[in-house]
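Tutorial handout. Part one gives the primary structure; part two gives the three-dimensional structure as tokens.
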Amino acid sequence: MKYCLVVDDSAVIRKVARRILEGLQFRIAEAEDGARAIDSCKGEMPDAVLLDWNMPIMDGYEFLRALRQMPGGKRPKVVFCTTENDIAHIARAMHAGADEYIMKPFDKEIVASKFHQVGLL
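Part two.
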């Protein structure tokens, strides 16, 4: 079973993402900010990360840059999940090492489609 880390400061978004991803046969861990997500990755590197952009302590961009520098940190597929829809934000995320992005709000079909595109399904 593949392992996905859901990183978002919203408990509601984490709960929705957990339900969707468990339905897609993923084992899930959650983190409410990038710093806690880094700690989680030190314990076990995920196969996938569903990552929010705007969070306190360490935002998604900072987390992604730190993740990609960690041993094994280039392996996880990272899908940004954000309300930021301008090209500059998307380009910045992709340049930092994101594999794909999803706009909020999202549903099971959108998540499944993006995870399929990056080879997770």
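Part three, for discussion. The chain has five helices and five strands. The first strand starts at residue 2 and ends at 7.
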